[in-house]
DNA sequence: CAAGCAAACTGAACTAGACCAAGAAACCCT
DNA sequence: AGGGTTTCTTGGTCTAGTTCAGTTTGCTTG
């Protein structure tokens, strides 16, 4: 039997072991050492197989806490413009937001380029971690133009959607969005916020919001646990 | 020094070693055993570090052939509606397409659902592998409605864009597209077409094309090497 | 000179352990 | 009952090798 066949077998055996084990989405898997007792292999090989299941999005891990069965992916319609909490709850899941940072700072070169301003111009920086059904799945860094949203830091930024605030308190509607999407590895700041191992695969979504006058008003960098979402989108192509 | 620090150090040391080594994008790295001579660690640890650089998209591997420095990502505008070859060449890269399969078959449940037909209805199945600058980066499976595109298999499907064929030969314009995006692991069919290890991280793009009458005419599943692309998109949100 | 074959190299996969530090749980004392 | 401390479990990382199979390369032969 070729070696790669064995790896494939191990993955299948492991998967059967897990699914027949009457595990439900979000449940913790037995410990690596316990799994070994049923699998006749070594820890490193087992971890390799677990990592592959992780890459496929069937299981995930929380750093030093264990492996878990992945819940179904959240469907995220990029153009629906739905706030996070509404999007999550419309799919019968429970949403939560935690505020990690909120202060004024100087725009980095990247942020400045995106917002069409000079490097070092003051911006509001808001960093949040968001959960679905108690699991941290999203780490977001927002950067807002200070001149568009004066004193926005005074509001309750954990409870309320930013776009909602824009509309209600500042009469700014997001009328155009630009996205950049890609998959990379987690930086260790985002990793620790998501209880994930640094370098684990992540879906990055960078977003720039334009208001009704075409002005770029804010941008954000979203890092999603890659097994937690499926992006959807429907539109007319330009050509 | 904590263990994770060492892992991080190794990654940095390795990265410095590579960049100062005057490697250019697409170049092959020294063999794992050669790298070990400079790094004072073991093979497994080294491979762990290489895998992390791979997850970040800085290097990639071709199965049993070695590790390579990643070229810059191709920017893929989802709504531009540009054929692959034009998109690639407009970014001064060289495009190539290889036809892997082209035949009539029965629609699977998934394909049937997407195209709004009954399972088992005949469809054309076209499978292609596409390269940028000689590197296989994309594996695509197309499924076309037979009634929309009779005898399309007679055309040269490697040389020509499908949407171009639709328009020129069948007077069908793609006037609406629906996407589903996510990141998963490579299945071993796609993996071997891309010379990649099965289970390596991949950006999946599923696309359903609608014609000018709103009819779903074809769908495709694209599997991109995750370090090869950055998706972009600009549109007005619906709310 | 070209084609075919064999050897060397290289990544893929695996074995069989070990130590450490972060979490979780149990425990104890106040 | 509550808060803090200790203990135990668990994942994270590492050592030091081996075996196997696909690629590449170079040599030989017709």
UniProtKB/TrEMBL annotation, chains A, B:
Residues annotated as domain HTH gntR-type? 4-72
- One GO BP: negative regulation of DNA-templated transcription
Q: Which UniProt keywords apply?
A: DNA-binding, Transcription, Transcription regulation
Give the source's domain of life in one word: Bacteria
Q: Which Pfam families match?
A: GntR, UTRA
Family annotation (InterPro entries):
Bact_HTH_transcr_reg, Chorismate_lyase_/UTRA_dom_sf, Tscrpt_reg_HTH_GntR, UTRA, WH-like_DNA-bd_sf, WH_DNA-bd_sf
Cite the Gene3D superfamilies for this sequence: Chorismate lyase-like, Winged helix-like DNA-binding domain superfamily/Winged helix DNA-binding domain
One example of the protein's molecular function in GO is:
DNA-binding transcription factor activity
Keyword Transcription regulation (UniProt): yes
Show the CDD domains listed in the entry.
WHTH_GntR
Q: What is this protein called?
A: DNA-binding transcriptional regulator, GntR family
Species of origin reads Halomonas caseinilytica
